[in-house]
Structures are given as structure tokens and as C-alpha cells.
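Exercise 7. Predict the structure of Band 7 domain-containing protein from Mycena metata.
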Amino acid sequence: MPSSVPGCRIRAQIHFALFSLPYPPPVDDGKRHFSPDHPHYRTRNDDVNVPTIRIEPPPPVEVYSSQPLRSPVCLSSPSAVRAASGSRIRASGVIVPRRTFLTIIQQGKEGWQLRFIENASLGRDPQRLAPGLHINIPIYHYLHKIDLRESSISIPNLPGYTADNVPVLCSGSLFYRIVDGYKPCFAISDVQNSIRNTGTSAMRSVLGHFTYDQVIGDRNELNKRLNIVIGSSIVNWGVECTRFEVQSFQPANREVERQLELQMEAERSRRKQLLDTQAQINVAEGQKQRVILESEAHTVVREAEARQQQALMEATALAQQIDGVAAAVTAPGSTPGPAERREALSALVELRRLEQLRAIANGTGNATYFFGDRAAMGLGAGAADAFNVDYAEQVKGGLARNAHMKGTGTGKVDGGAAVGAVDEAGQL
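Solution. The predicted structure, encoded as C-alpha cells:
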């Protein structure tokens, strides 16, 4: 094919793109022919072997207009593109935005404007632009726009090692907010890339202070440590680290994951054995307490029975003692009657009272007791007359007369003891 054919095709496309004019008629040199659907289609019978060339218009250009449009507009001609977007089109098809003398700072952002000629500042002393409409003259002004809203940077699949040397892959999101727009513009060249590098380094460093189980069990502590470390590093750039969220945490390879699974299985088995042992200890302790309670119950029953037997034996002994005293004060050969029994009981009561008074007198306490008459001491009028000195002598004589007739076996009253008690009563 002749070399002039591609050149004609390129010239036609450039001409169409720049001036939106129809294709010019080709020079009739007998070598260039167009397809039948072209308006300048020509046929020649003497040159039928020359291949035809089909010149197609460029594809439609999809642009986003600087004018407020609701959706992308697909335009098929450069004039329509220029009318819709207000921009120029280069020969290569690149849309160049038209320069204006106004700029808009959206809400949540701020701008820093440099002047290169005014007062010979040459780029010094930038001016802060609040949200709104501002003048921005090309070449005379240079504008930096800073987003003050909270943003996030993703850190995916970061390899690292835990404190127990487990290789892991960790990914997270770093949330930050610019609090001083001057420093990101003039204190650092690429603030977002620097924040990402700082977050990556801090994440790998802090991860080495935690074991694998600690990260799995308490991920919030890891997030807090990362927030503190990253925040202290980027504060000099006018950036605040609001929070750091660890999204995924897993072993680096399958072999490590299998070893961790075996370790966790062994730990679960150990905990199961520990729980089983503790359960057996609790069962044994319960049986021990049951036996102790049963033995205490039997002890209480035995003590109650013993007290019952003791009370019965004491009552029997008291009855025998009363009978012995009554027989001692009765004439020989006579049977004690109810009157003698009452007198014997009163004598025994008086003896018990005297024993209590002796215990009080022999006490170690520094106490003084004053007793009134015998009636105030708990004796009635008859008892006061019965237990006088004469009656004590009478009891002593009766006991002495019957001493040879009475024994001192079980259930009997010792006559000598009774006589001594009566002597003491008489002395008192």
C-alpha cells in the first residue's frame, strides 16, 4: 500500500478533531479511493485493483463537564464537547480544562494561596482561604487545597512477627484528620504517603510487643497502642491520628496455622483435664461434708440420749437419797412416811444451798453478800423452825442411833456424811 495513504488518514482525523469540518475531497491521483458510504466516493474502471480505504470518525468522547450536570454526557463531535464542557480539545483527544480567574473552596476544606509577584513575595507568606469563592489568577497565584475532614488509609496484608516469633499477616485502617492546614502544605512534601509509611512502621513495631494469644484475646489494646505511637509521630505535620482499627489478623502460612491449631487443641485438653480434676475434688469434698454432717447428727442423737439417761439416773439417785435421809431421821423400826420424806427433801435443799454459799464464800472475787432473815433466804416459816440448832441436834442424834443399822452401798446415804452436813448446818 502506498505510504501516502496513512498520512491522509491521520490528517483527516486531525482536521476533523480541530475544526469539526467534513473531510476534504482527496486529490484525484488515481491511488486513493473511499468506501461507497463516503460522500466523496468515486470509482474508476481503469484502477480496480487498488484497495479501498475506509476513514472512520473518532469514537465518541465521554467527558464530565465543568457545568453542573446530573450524569455523564456522551458527545460525538468536538463542537458538542466544547459546548458542553467549556474546555479545549487537543489533537491527541485530551480534554484540557479552561483556566478561570475564580476558584471555589468547598465546605470541609481550606486553601493556601501563594502570590509570586505582589510585594516581591515570590511565594512567601501564604494566605489562608476559607470555604467560599475566591480569586485565583493563573501564574500570579498558586493554590494548595487541603481536606480537613477525617480520612482513612488502608494498610493491607502487612507481614510481621509477634512477641512469641509467630509470622503473621495483619491489615488495618488508619483514620486521621488534618488540624493545621499550613504544615501539610509547607512542612512535608507528601503527607498522605508519609502517614501511610509511618502507620506501616508503627504497626510492625507494636505488633512485636504482643504475643499471638494477646492479639487474639485483646485487640483493643493493640489498637490503643498503635493510636498513641502513630499520633505522636505525625503530630509535627499538623495531623491527628483519631484511631487505628486492626481489621484482620492471621498466620502467615499454613504450617504456622497448623502448629497453632495443635497448640490450641493441647491447651483445650489441659483445661478439660483440669476441670475434670476440679470436679472430682468437689465431689469428694461434698461426700466428706455429708459424712461429717451425718456423724454430727448421730453425735447429737447420742448426746440427747445420754442426757436423758443422765436425767433419769439423777432422778433415781435423788429419790434414793431422799429415802435414805428420811429413813435416817425416822425412829428405828418405823417406815418413813410422807412427812418424813418432805422433811428429808427440805434438808437436802438446805444442804445444796449451804454448798452454794460455801462456793460463794470461797470465791476469788472481791464481793460482799448481805443476807437477811431465813425467810428472805428462800425458807418458809416451817423450814426456818425446822432447821434450827435443836432440830440439827435431833437429826444428828437420830443418824447416830441408826448408823449401825444402815449400810453405805449403792443407792444408800452415808450416815457420817449426813451427820457432818447437819453439823455444818447447825454451826451456820
